[in-house]
Amino acid sequence: MIRTISIPYYTSSMDLHVEEKNLKTVITAKTEDYVPEKSPKELIEDALEHPIGTPKLSELAKGKNKVVLVTSDHTRAVPSRLTLPILLKEIRKGNPDADIIILIATGLHRETTEEEQRRMFGDDIVDHEKISVNHAFQNEEFAFVRELPSGAELWVNRLALGCDLLVTEGFIEPHFFAGFSGGRKSILPGIRGRETIFHNHAFSLDAAQLRSNPAIGNGVLKGNPLHEDMCEAAGLVKNLFIVNLVMNAQMQLAAILSGHYLTSWEAACRMVDRIYQVDVPEKADVIVASCGGFPKDISLYQGTKTIDNIESGLKPGGTLILIIEAREGGGPAEYFDWAKDLVAGTIERRLREHFTVAGYIFFLNCEQAQRYNILLYSSIAPEDVAPMGIKAFSDVNALLDAAQLEGKSIYVIPNGSTVIPHVKEASKHEA
User: Which of 255, 274, 293 lies at the terminal end of a domain, its last residue?
Assistant: First the structure.
C-alpha cells in the first residue's frame, strides 16, 4: 500500500509516495499545532505591553532622538510586515520626533535587494522609512569598540554605535553552532564587521583536530564559545531592547517575547526547545526531510540547519533524503570553491589560515556526508556536490531507486527546520 505525503518545496509542495510497510512515522513538529488564541497583532502588542526585564519600549524611547531598528534579512522568515509598523508606532509613541533608521542585519549574507525589502516590509515602509543594509565587507561602515574575551576585535556598525536606542527583532530556532538563533545574534553577527564575525565563527572548528567543535550544537549554550562571545557583544550595547519571535511550522507568528537582550531571549529559547523536540522510539534507517520550503530551502548553506536538526533521529551510516530546491545553489559565491581544497587535501590548512563561514559550512556538509548517505532532490547540479560525497537528483524516481528503501525503516519529516527527533537514550541535548 502506497501513502502519499505532501512535502514543502520552495513556495509550493510536492507529493512523496512511500510504501506504507516501510514508513515508520511521519514526524510533525509540535509547532504544527501551536496556534495562539490571539491574533498576530495582539501578540505583538501584548509583548510590548509586558516586556521581560526592561521598561516598555515607548518609555525607553522617551528622549531618544536617534533610534536604530535592526531587523532580519531575506534569509529569515520574520513577519516584518506585521511587526515593523507596530514597533515604529511604539517608538514614536515615546518620541514622535525620533530619527529612526531600519538596519537590515545581513551578517555575512548578500545584500537584501529592494524587491526583497518590499516583499518583507511592504511598500509603505520601503517608500516612507529610512532603510540601511549592513555590509560586513565594507570596513568604512564599522568602528572599533574593544577586544572581546575571545580575543576578537569588536567592530560595530557605525549607525548602531551612534544611536540613542537600539531595537532588534528576530525569530528563534535551534542553531547548529550558536545554540539558538535570535536575541544576541542580531548584534553578532547581524550588524558586525567581517573580521569580528569570522573570528567568532572560527570557534566552530575544534582547536586540536579538523572536525566541528564538540562544544557547539543545537540547543547548546553552556560552554559554547560562540554564544558567549555573542552575549558579550550584545551586553556592550547601551539601551538595547529586543523582540523575540517564535514561529509555527507554517512560519506564522506563534508567540512573541520582548525586553532584556538575555533574559527575554532565554525565556523564548526554553519555549522553542520544548516545541521543537519530538520523541521517537528509535533511530531510523532513512529520513526523508524537507527544509520547510522558502526561504529555508533557498540554498544548501541554509539547508544545513535542517540536516543538523534531524541527525539525532538517523542511524549512523543511514540515508538522508533532503528535499531542497536551492535556487541559490550552495549559497555564498565561495561555497563550492572550497571543493578545490577538499580534492587537493588542503582544506584544513585553508580553513585555519583563512576561516570563512561559507568554508566552514561546506566542510560541515562534507563531514555530514561522511556520517550518512545524503541524497538531494534539488535544482543543484550533481557535479557541484559530487566531490562532497553528496548525490543530487532532479528526478524523484531516480532518487528513490538510488535510496534502496525496501525493507528499511523510514521517518518522513515534512518540515525539518522545526523538528528535532529525540531518542532519549541518544539525545544530543543530553550529551
Answer: 274
Are residues 251 and 293 part of one domain? no
| Domain enclosing residue 359, as ranges | 2-27+280-430
Chosen domain end from 238, 256, 274: 274
pLDDT at residue number 21: 81
Same domain, 414 and 360: yes
CA distances from 394 to 132, 288, 328, 372 (A): 38, 15, 15, 20
116 or 137: which leads in pLDDT:
116
Distance of alpha carbon 319 from alpha carbon 286, whole angstroms: 5
Query: Position of cell 522510539?
Result: 281
Answer yes or no: is 34 within a domain.
no
pLDDT in tens, 321-348: 999 999 999 998 899 999 999 999 999 8
The amino acid at 401: D
Q: Do 387 and 266 fall into the same domain?
A: no
**Cα distance between residue 233 and residue 226, in whole Å:** 11
> Are the CB atoms for 216 and 228 separated by under 8 Å?
no
Are 299 and 342 members of one domain?
yes
Q: What is the pLDDT of residues 54-92, one digit of tens each?
A: 999 999 999 999 999 999 888 777 889 999 999 999 999
- Active-site residues, by number, are 109, 175
Q: Which residues pair with 105 in a beta bridge?
A: 72
**How far is 310 from 305, CA to CA, in rounded Å?**
9
* Displacement of CA 111 from its chain's centroid (Å): 17
In which residue are the cell numbers 531598528 written? 69
Number of other residues whose CB lies within 10 A of the CB of residue 52? 18
The angle formed by the CA atoms of residues 127, 241 and 356, to the nearest 5 degrees, is 80
Question: In angstroms, rounded to a whole number, what is the distance separating the alpha carbons of residues 91 and 336?
Answer: 43
pLDDT tens per residue, range 14-30: 888 888 887 888 988 77
